[in-house]
Amino acid sequence: xxxxxxxxxxxxxxxxxxxxxxxxxxxxxxxxxxxxxxxxxxxxxxxxxxxxxxxxxxxxxxxxxxxxxxxxxxxxxxxxxxxxxxxxxxxxxxxxxxxxxxxxxxxxxxxxxxxxxxxxxxxxxxxxxxxxxxxxxxxxxxxxxxxxxxxxxxxxxxxxxxxxxxxxxxxxxxxxxxxxxxxxxxxxxxxxxxxxxxxxxxxxxxxxxxxxxxxxxxxxxxxxxxxxxxxxxxxxxxxxxxxxxxxxxxxxxxxxxxxxxxxxxxxxxxxxxxxxxxxxxxxxxxxxxxxxxxxxxxxxxxxxxxxxxxxxxxxxxxxxxxxxxxxxxxxxxxxxxxxxxxxxxxxxxxxxxxxxxxxxxxxxxxxxxxxxxxxxxxxxxxxxxxxxxxxxxxxxxxxxxxxxxxxxxxxxxxxxxxxxxxxxxxxxxxxxxxxxxxxxxxxxxxxxxxxxxxxxxxxxxxxxxxxxxxxxxxxxxxxxxxxxxxxxxxxxxxxxxxxxxxxxxxxxxxxxxxxxxx
Length: 518
Hints:
By secondary structure, this protein is α+β, with helices and mostly antiparallel strands.
């Protein structure tokens, strides 16, 4: 039987998925395992490394139950995963404690302290990335100050996908996207000594792994990993770019002749413009956002990222679930999600103002403040639960507009991906708050697909990424949703109030945080 399949692995914060595609991008089968993370006082958010690898291997084994002779048919396996964070291993490759996730807020004060240094302006110009508590540099510095023995035992600082790649191949590496927005220069696609030196990590600099570009290089599945996954030893393994880039790639964020945007409505909210790296204009006033390299020569993604997107929906729907359960009625999340469009139809636009800063880590786009917190403004006795849901979704839309405004001009069209983008009402609100047409990617697993696309180019199935995009992405774009002009006018009037309120609340957040610390 010929080799006719590619597997894309996407290790998210809450789910690890392995997806099988044929060589034209059609999804054949999938397997997933719920991934668990743990929180603790002080803003800790951690995940056991071995658990994430075991979950990955489990999903790869499970695929054999759905696809006959899969091991002999796989051309390549590509891996992506949740970004930022710190996954430490020792000389033998064993975990050094649990991973610190992108949700971990412990390095917030250190990140704020670093941003106040004059040298941070030069670091920002190199990386194109605002410094926040999620990032490995700030987290390593926090460990150096508070857990030095941990760093002394560590040999390599991975990100999530790097850890999985190491287990699959035995190769210690990271990809160009995470390498450069953390410790490098997006113009040279390489590490930058000045950026590394900015953190003052000393001997811990040796923890940073080499860069491996999966678009041009791959390694082979080891024998031990073959036994754990059920695949054939020697199968090409491709290190994908960070999950945000893979999702943007799979959702259609890039076209050679279009000014496109892409919003990922996921646990976090990602708002992306793809450009020639040489044409990127950085927001030096706010020093926020990310510049992440694409697996396309000369192309980078400029983005602003909300710490929380659907986390806000989870919270507000969780309130309804708690009330229902207290009355003896078991209600699952899918049932509540099915009610959203109905709530939106019976409520009035812009009757509330909501800032979606529900994460314990605060906000990172378009401003960086680890003390930022959510709030409703404008509540009165006539508001019901549906108004809270609508206000929450409108808050996500205003947060997206806030982010795109920090990047530059609004794109001609914005591609949407993420489970919540399936809601017609949510798409309509996003389109109207942004004042731009949107188009949903019908690709169910954009992240895994983006990783598989990198593999398809790496192993020579396609000569260029554009060739792959034409076959894997374009046919799966939905119809264009144009915004309602009246709703655009309403939200355009309301948006300045959203910005003014968050600016006015910022000193209050800091006072509340100071009070909490005393």
